[in-house]
Amino acid sequence: MASDPEQPPLSSLPKEGRSRGEIGSAREPLLSNGVHDSENYYSTYAAILPFLFPALGGLLYGYDIGATSSATISIQSSTLSGITWYNLSSVQIGLVTSGSLYGALIGSLLAFNVADFLGRKRELIAAALAYLVGALVTAVAPDFPLLVVGRVVFGLGIGLAMHAAPMYIAETAPTPIRGILISLKEFFIVLGMVAGYGTGSLLVDTVAGWRYMFGVSSPLAIIMGIGMFFLPDSPRWILLCAIQGKGDPQNLKDKAICCLCQLRGQAIGNSAPQQVDEILAELSYVGEEKEVTFGELFRGKCKKALLIGGGLVLFQQITGQPSVLYYAGSILQSAGFSAASDATRVSILLGFFKLIMTGAAVGVVDKLGRRPLLLGGVSGMAISLFLLGSYYIFLDNVAVVAVVGLLLYVGCYQISFGPIGWLMISEVFPLRLRGRGLSIAVLVNFASNALVTFAFSPLKELLGAGTLFYIFCAIAVTSLLFIHFIVPETKGLTLEEIEAKCL
């Protein structure tokens, strides 16, 4: 194989960096000074478009959450459903509501095996296609079984999108704004929820309104798919393929340079080859040339990355987030808010509050760092859960305690676990493990969400709301210990430096 005389062949990339200094038991990365000259610039294109189209996958996920609550009301109406099979059982309504969640679990399992083969871009295109097919099948479903099929197919899109979008954004974003861009994906999820609640409230009194609620997703899915088609592949994924021998190394390196130029635009000048060489040197240094085996996922740095990522998304769900929101309407109503009798209005109100708090987190995540937001936010969640538990056991005549607890919980969640959980899992996994590791983390997220949602009602009946909130409070305190002792700070580090320094 002929190679460019001005560029060293991939097999001769410098590996002497492996013997350079160590940080504790970790080896010092080649780019250890924290200054990344080749990433000190980025164009509007680099900052917006490679984020926007993957983030539409999060928007569609959030929209589904918001719209489904109104769709289940519409579909059970004898006069407005527009169907003859409107008299659905509680189990059937549960399947309509959770069908997309089961599809997301299946999508996460599929991603484990196909993610590294497809690459981030093609996986997001596949997600957009699943979104489109699922939305259309659900909207035109002539009977209940096909309706459930459409919900599951849409859920496949959720599973693939929530797996691939954080990877694509993390691997293409300039280091100085990586935290902002990945955290904005959570902002898009919440924005989608607000849009779903709003659309549902507008269409709930329309004949066959549930069909329109579900069908509205299809144009956005088309935009997402077309946008991803014209975006370049992730240069890091291409370089991983190169050093693992999955194609002609020099051609793949040239392709990575071309993709990097597309991502950064004219701002990158002539330094794209230099940046690609830096990434290749780091990948070679941390041993990315070996393909990960299933057993290796649970050893060494791979095991630590799984512990960090899986632990964060597990605590994200089992600290009671779905359960607290279940009580939002009754809490606000007990405090004298008449609009709280309308569940949709409560959802829209809390949705806008979530947007504000998520926006606050996005604005400071690359300044304050990940750990301060996690530690501060989860501390606030623990306090709020204690207040809610106390309200339901001791202070049932002091509604202000419950309102403060509710708003404190929602706000603290949105500046901590909400955006930072997704951000951290996109950063901590080594590149060759990132596809499979993220699929496990996303699977843990959706599985624990399903478990908490399923177990909430029987546990509430068995233990009472107050005791249940105290249990969530204890879990939140445990998650604080986990964050303090296990979760590293990744602010200002390249993805390669995170692997070398933090794992």
UniProtKB/TrEMBL annotation:
Biological processes annotated in GO: D-glucose transmembrane transport
GO molecular function list: transmembrane transporter activity
Keyword Transmembrane: yes
Sequence segments annotated as region (Disordered): 1-31
Subcellular location: Membrane
Family: Belongs to the major facilitator superfamily. Sugar transporter (TC 2.A.1.1) family.
Name listed for the protein in its UniProt record: Major facilitator superfamily (MFS) profile domain-containing protein
Organism listed in the record: Crotalaria pallida (Smooth rattlebox)
Classification of source organism: Eukaryota, Viridiplantae, Streptophyta, Embryophyta, Tracheophyta
